[in-house]
Amino acid sequence: MKQISTVLKLNGLNCLLFGALFVFIPIPIIGFLSDTNPAPEVIVVAMGVILNLYGMLLLWVGNKSKPNSKLVLAIAIGDALWVGLTATLIISQTWITTINGITAAGLIAIVVGWMGLFQWQYATNAE
């Protein structure tokens, strides 16, 4: 039980960190990710707000003594969507085109994917 709580909290903190960056300094983030095909600022700020809300949900679920397996499964699916969207943006060279942006986004997707896999295993084994 302690491990899933730790993973959920780490995932939540990760979302809050990147959400804050996207909301408070979107222009430098956009420039870091792409110098040839930048994302619209409104999309980055909106994603930051969504990440902050998602991060708060993760922290709330992670603080439960026994996290709800259906909710953890939904979170795992959300993480899988994040990984898939990141891979799609990198491969299509949409909004993530610099080598630093590709590297950072790829590494973040790997970490999110690992946490999502851990959450998936918890959710499917808890039933």
Please characterize this protein's 3D structure:
This protein has 127 residues and is an all-alpha fold. The chain has one domain. The chain has 5 helices and no strands. The radius of gyration is 15 Å and the shape is elongated. It starts with a helix and ends with a helix. The mean pLDDT is 97.
Jot down its keywords.
single chain; 127 residues; mainly alpha; 5 helices; 82% helix
Q: Provide the gyration radius in Å.
A: 15 Å
Shape: elongated
Tally of contiguous helical segments: 5
Overall SS class: mainly alpha
Q: Quick check: average pLDDT?
A: 97
Structure summary, number of beta strands? 0
The H/E string reads HHHHH
The biggest sheet amounts to:
none
- Which segments are poorly predicted (pLDDT under 50) over 5 or more consecutive residues? none
Short overview:
The protein is built from five helices and no strands.
Strand and helix map with partners:
Layout: H1 2-24, H2 26-33, H3 41-62, H4 69-91, H5 99-126
Helix pairs in contact: 1-3, 1-5, 4-5
